[in-house]
Specification:
Pfam families: AAA_lid_14 (PF25601), GAF (PF01590), HTH_8 (PF02954), Sigma54_activat (PF00158)
Protein name: ATPase AAA
Distance between the termini: 40 Å
Structural class: alpha+beta
Number of helices: 24
Keywords: Activator, ATP-binding, DNA-binding, Nucleotide-binding, Transcription, Transcription regulation, Two-component regulatory system
Number of domains: 5
Oligomer: single chain
Organism: Bradyrhizobium nanningense
Bound molecules: adenosine-5'-triphosphate
GO molecular function: ATP binding; sequence-specific DNA binding
CATH architecture of the largest domain: 2-Layer Sandwich
CATH topology of the largest domain: Beta-Lactamase
Length: 617
């Protein structure tokens, strides 16, 4: 039987949607409730999961979105990391509200998202689910926050969704970036803030897609009140493309762009000043009035635009870019080049934020597997039972809560391509054993399956831990460790890179394109040890770009928390793993584990309590 609050919700939705009462529902939500009831003929009281596509259907739907997903992934991963602690999942959906990319926050919240099928393959269009973040954002092509009981169907009232639309380089709706939380301790204002972060991420994804689409053109940023737009033009200074906001700012239409209209009809600037790489220039309108500062980026390949066929791309491009001018990195990329098409497992080692994920993607892109899937899993972000199901897959009905049609698992999804296991040092020992078996036998047994599935994968794994000592102490399987490190690549911390200044300059250009760094700000950045490496540098400069006045980032704009001394290796994590393994070996018996570890029982008990280590087997 529906609870009283459930029937209240349904009564309120029906009275607002039928114009009986306007109560306090905001007009966008009220209009969407009306569409849900009258146009889509939905019932707010109906319960049940959303429509979920099969894996074959998802593949079919995802195909035209492949490039978008590829270009959006790093940004979405970043968003997921920033919002993970607040319990948000992050998704990218196509223009029909089918989720095609999902990152779950981990821990307890993940199970709720899985139970409610808030994941890849689910359809959240307004026509199916009524008012909800994704469906309503895409119906209106505007960012929206749909907070708990603003959903049309009562059952979605445990969720709050903040969603920003994504427009393609031609200004058409391409999909949306969604974040959803089931936490009831977050206020509407907190979600509003998360919506602002999501909108910024969507703008950056649009920027990356636009720059990739018009990579053979010159690209100018056009300043506007709600953030800058992007305009692409050729060597003859004819406009060849404009993003949605640049179209709105300058009054450009498809017809005008197709006619090859002259850039000077819209904006003017000193072209000589912009002949270098990524220069800042002063823009003027056609009538000479000032329009603000613009960053001009040259074509990525010096080639006239009229020849529209893409040049052959150097498959090592991304690896070379990541190596930059650091001799150690250049050497590592050279060594990798020699084995790139041999399916040698690669183990990446480096502190958080040094670019392990980007590097793994670049290895995949350079290899002969580039046309097949790149599948990533963060072993630290999920409980053991979920890693098991996610990685190895399961048959239909293998456990309570399993998808009706089973799941292939990430290893099988990576067949023919690359599997990236991030934070492999955090993989529970039982799963290490299963993974080792997969690598040895080249086949995987999904949970509940009667026969194995043959797989051909290249494995790249990454860790910030020292697996060697962990393997010596029995906290990581030594045989797996030697299998993983077919080749080990150490990615240096930002503070140790020889090309550190170039990286700071490059990230400043990307994150704060219309600002310059004052000399004090520069000195602070150059002296700071950046324990969070490239990711921290990006976030610091992104924030500084927002707070800077008059286009100058000063030291006051830099949020650099005091950081004294060396960056310590993760000793506590290594100790925790050693204790957990000793307990496992001794069947959870503390006295025996303490003897093996040469600790007193009392000390071991204290450590178990302080580190919240599970003792039961
Ligand atoms: N060489 C680089 N130049 C510019 N930005 C970079 C570079 N390498 C990494 N980044 C940026 O740093 C951020 C973190 O990168 P990435 O996620 O690959 O790091 P990671 O080592 O895998 O982090 P973690 O260990 O926390 O998972 C991303 O925003 C990425 O764009």
């Amino acid at each position: 039987m529906a609870s009283l609050s459930a029937s209240n919700h349904v009564a309120r939705v029906l009275s607002v949607a039928n114009h009986v009462a306007d109560v306090d529902a905001s007009s966008r939500i009220a209009n969407s409730w009306r569409r849900s009831l009258i146009s889509h003929k939905l019932d707010p009281a109906r319960r049940g999961p959303p429509q979920t596509l099969t894996e074959a259907e998802v593949r079919h739907v995802a195909e035209p979105m492949e490039e978008t997903i590829r270009l959006a992934t790093a940004e979405l991963e970043d968003l997921a990391r920033v919002l993970r602690d607040a319990g948000y999942c992050v998704n990218l959906a196509d223009a029909n509200a089918i989720m095609l990319f999902s990152r779950l926050p981990g821990a307890a919240d993940t199970e709720i998202f899985l139970r409610w099928k808030v994941y890849t393959g689910s359809n959240f269009s307004e026509a199916h689910e009524g008012t909800n973040g994704l469906g309503t954002c895409l119906a209106e092509q505007k960012p929206i926050l749909v907070h708990r009981d603003e959903h049309f169907r009562e059952q979605w009232g445990i969720f709050s969704c903040a969603v920003a639309p994504l427009f393609d380089p031609l200004g058409r709706i391409a999909g949306a970036v969604n974040i959803t939380s089931c936490r009831d301790d977050l206020s509407r204002a907190a979600h509003q803030l998360a919506l602002a972060v999501t909108m910024q991420a969507a703008r950056r994804i649009e920027g990356a897609i636009f720059r990739d689409h018009f990579r053979n053109a010159w690209i100018a940023t056009v300043p506007g009140d709600g953030g800058s737009g992007l305009l692409a033009y050729d060597e003859d200074r004819r406009v060849v493309g404009a993003c949605r906001s640049a179209r709105a700012l300058l009054g450009l239409t498809d017809g005008l762009i197709a006619s090859g209209i002259d850039l000077s009809r819209y904006i003017k600037f000193d072209h000589h000043a912009a002949r270098g790489a990524e220069d800042i220039v002063q823009l003027r309108r056609a009538d000479g009035s000032p329009l603000g500062r613009s960053q001009i980026a040259p074509p990525q390949r010096a080639r006239p635009l009229t020849k529209r066929r893409d040049p052959p791309v150097d498959r090592f491009d991304a690896l070379h870019r990541l190596a930059g001018g650091d001799p150690g990195m250049v050497k590592s990329v050279k060594r990798l080049g020699a084995v790139i098409d041999h399916d040698l497992p690669v183990l990446l080692h480096g502190e958080t934020g040094v670019g392990k994920d980007l590097f793994a993607r670049a290895i995949h892109a350079a290899s002969n597997r580039a046309r097949n899937n790149y599948v990533a899993l963060n072993c630290a972000a999920m409980p053991e039972s979920l890693i098991d199901a996610e990685l190895f897959g399961y048959e239909a009905g293998a456990f309570t809560g399993a998808r009706r049609d089973g799941s292939k698992g990430l290893i099988v999804q990576a067949h023919g391509g690359t599997l990236f296991l991030d934070e492999i040092g955090d993989m529970p020992i039982a799963l290490q054993t299963r993974l080792l078996r997969v690598l040895e036998n080249r086949e995987v047994w999904p949970l509940g399956a009667l026969k194995p599935v043959a797989v051909d994968i290249r494995l790249i794994s990454a860790t910030h831990r020292d697996l060697g000592p962990m393997a010596e102490q029995g906290a990581f399987r030594a045989d797996l460790y030697f299998r993983l490190r077919g080749m080990e690549v150490r990615l240096p911390a930002l503070r140790d890179r020889a090309d550190r200044d170039d990286i700071i300059r490059q990230i400043a250009r990307e994150e704060a394109p219309s600002c310059r760094l004052s000399s004090e700000a520069w000195s602070q950045l150059a002296a700071y040890p950046f324990p969070g490496n490239m990711r921290q540098l990006r976030h610091v400069l992104r924030l500084a770009g927002c707070t800077a006045e008059n286009g100058v980032i000063t030291d006051a704009d830099l949020d650099l928390p005091p950081f004294g001394g060396r960056v310590e290796p993760d000793l506590e994590a290594a100790e925790r793993a050693t204790i957990a393994e000793a307990l496992r070996k001794h069947g959870g018996r503390v006295t025996e584990a303490a003897r093996a570890l040469k600790l007193s029982r009392a000390t071991l008990y204290r450590k178990i309590k302080a580190m919240k280590i599970e003792t039961a087997q």
